[in-house]
Structure formats: structure tokens, C-alpha cells
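#struct-queue
[09:14] JT: dropping the first one here, sequence first, then the C-alpha cells:
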Amino acid sequence: MIKGLAITPPVIGRISIGKLVQRHDKLLPEKDDSFTLTTQVQNRDGWLLHPLHQPLAEQANNGKIRAIPVRLPFNNSELNLRAEYSAFDRASGRPLCVGNGETARRVTPDGLEEATCAGPDRCPFARDAGCKLYGRLNVQVDGQQDELGTFIFRTTGYNSVRTLAARLHYFEAVSGGLTRYLPLTLRLRAKSTAQSYRTPVYYVDLTLREGQSLIEAVTQAHAEAEQAESAGVDTAQMEAMAKRLLQNGQFEETEEDVPQLLEEFYPETTPEGELQAPATPIRPARLTRQLGKVNGTELVR
């Protein structure tokens, strides 16, 4: 295995709740009030829709997808949702510092060093480097053919990360560590606060399927887990390998991915960490030359 390269869960599609739009020669984030399922391919018009998007849109009210039937790829909550405080170098596209609120891995002139992580609000380095919370959730959408592939939802919003983390740990505990077998729904919710000036702020939640009780869901999960074990499916070994592969690298994001992540998730933010349209272009000229025209983003909440 190549050392220094984090091996992440295979991704076959993206789940987003927003996009970048071209306005006055600038790429600006635009909010959306529904999910979009896309492939990992872009053209001049933006991200190409995934084949699973249209069936879900046809079933939704007004074509707006606000609920997606999903399963989780792992029982371990930390594997399904990986969230860290992250800062990136906009000029080089390299990760600068990644921390968990206690310790951080920071790139210095002398190489990679361990540092104390106080979070973006209390760390001078974080404020200067534009550090913020960054989460990645992997799910499997009902109807996908690849049993090991996942859709990824990326977010820099506290509301989404906090809600998803709570749900995942609750489901893991109440099911006896069988979260992978629970039939769940990824939902888009809205809230407003004084900091959002009473306008809606959208975030992502994870719930049971509509009409199904917790007892029914857990009973079904135990039955499916027993069936998988009888068939020889070793979920524990798969999760041990997934953890080992993720820890194989210093940072999860690669230099190839970071320039696009900067466009989609690191523009100017409101006090709550929600996206707002910046007054200036959200990337320097050097990255513009590298990237060309890009018209897709997630609004991260």
C-alpha cells in the first residue's frame, strides 16, 4: 500500500444543497432549498445529474428533493461522518492544518508538526488561515447498484455537522452498533435565528423512514445483520480495514481536490458559519487558471 495516501470510501456521486453561479464575471454561491444528486463529472453547465436524481425529484413535491432514502456504509459513526477543523493554502491548494479541537496536524517550514487545536474562534493561526469546520458524510442511496460505493455530502456548517453527529451516535447506541442495517432518511430542514436575520438556514438531518417506529427499525436491523453474518459478510473486518486506510495518509483531501473545495466551501461566512455571497471573487487568479470555469457547489450548512 502506498504510504501517505489516505484511502477514502469509494464515491460514486455527490449530494449537494446549492451551487456556484456566474454573476458579473464572478463565481458566487447560491442557496438552494432542496437536494441535488450529481455524478462526479462537470461540463460548462455544472455538475451532471446522477440517474437517481430524477426518480426522487418525480416523487417529491414540486420536484424539490427534501428527503432521500439512505443506508450507512458502516456501523461506526466516525467512519460515516468525518469532521475536523481544516485550513487550506489557497495559492498551492495544500492542506495547512487539520485539528479536532484538542490537537492538530500543521504544515510548517520544518515539515508536519503536532500543534494544540483551540478551534477557529480561539486560534490566531486559524483566524489568519481561514480555518473552519469541515465535514464529510458518506451514505448509500436506495437504488444504487454498487454495494460498496457511496454518495458524499460535504459541509462546513455547524448545524449539519452537529445534527448528523448526534443522530449517528444515537442510532449506533440504540441499535447495539448495527447502524449500517438501519433504513434511514437524509432530510433537509430549515431554521432561522437572530444571527441569520430571521431568514431560513438549511441544514441536513438523518432520521428513520417515515411511518417506521424505532422498535421496527432496530428489529429489522438485527435480522439483516444476522442474515449477513450467516452469509459470511464480515462487517467488523471491513470497518477495521476502512479505518486503517483512512489513517494511511496525513490528510484526507488531496492537492487535486482542494482547489475545488475552496470554491465550494471556503468563501466568506456569516457568524453562524453559513454561506453568503462574497463581494470579491472567491479564488485567486492562480487557481482560476488551474480550474477554468466551474459551476457547481454545495451550500454547506
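[09:21] JT: and here's the second one, same format:
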Amino acid sequence: MNEPSAKRPRVLVSRPLPTDPAVRGSRSLFLSQAAQQGVRADRRMLYVGPEPAGRDVAECLRIAPGDEVIVRRKLMLANDVPVRIATSYFRADLFAGTRIAEPGFVLPTLQAALEALGHHFGRAEEVLVARRPTLFEAETLDLDPGEWVVQVVRTGYGTDDTPVHTLETICAADRHVFPIRQVTGNDEF
């Protein structure tokens, strides 16, 4: 791992895979995970609004590339250090004109808002990829030259198998550890 830049303190946060359902249903996945780790956490909304879907997001949401999606982009900080960019993508045909598309954080929780709109969780898929950051990611996360990111993409499907929510989390690789547990809770070699 790279040594941390002199301009920011060293911070290492955990991003468990798969996501613990009890934590996912909390007010904030990141705030809950950070509190469990004894890290002072904060989050800032960067953008809420429409965007054209990129190829990967379109594939996850089963729409055409370029179709409009509702985007909710946040910056997560641990001990005042930027560690993650979390972007939620929602199909505009399902969520335009709802509180999912409104500015600010969805209260009391995003999960409650989705359920109030008739979407009940069925299953999810999480994919993890390590890669070089985009310019936006490097600047937003205050990355040093040569630092990489880990991209975690989680798509949640309703009980009818409709893709409801794609969450792309861009993690500063040198500021994260990714503990992995089996869903059943029984670890095997």
C-alpha cells in the first residue's frame, strides 16, 4: 500500500462484503459501518438529479444506454478524510417525480421510501473491481498520484425481479479493507 499523503491523516475503514442486511436497512450504511468501527463519519450530498445512464448502469437497471436515470451522489468522509463516493442510480420510469428524485437525504431511510413506493427487496448482486480512478474520482477523494480505487456495484432487485436500485461505491483503495463473509455466517477454507 502507498504511504498516506502528508496533506491528510491516515485512515482505514471497513467495507464488508456482502453488505450486512441489518446495516443496509439502517439510516445510513456508511454512518452505521463507521460507528461500528469507532470512526467519526460525515457525508455530503454532491448531486441529485437526472443523468443519462452509462453502459454499465444501463445493463444493471435493464434499460438502454443513454436512457435517463435519477442519480443521488454523496461523498463519505472518515475523520474528515474523503474515503468514498457513493452514487445511487434509479430508473426514471419508476422514480421520476417521487421523493427519490428530490434534493437532500431521503428520510427516514431510502429503504423505507422504496417500500412506500411498492418496491420490496428480493435479492442483490455485488461486483467488486479495482481500477485507476477517473479525474473526478481522484480530485474528489484527494488521491495521490498512483492511488487506485475499488468500485463496488450493488444492484438490488424487487421481489418481482425488477432492478430497483444500483449503488456504485468508489472507495479510495488505500483507505479501505474489505472483509468478506459467507452469507450463511459459516466460514470455510
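[09:30] RK: nice, looked through the second one.
[09:31] RK: The mean pLDDT is 85.
[09:31] JT: good to know. The domain at 13-177 is CATH 3.40.1410.10 (Chorismate lyase).
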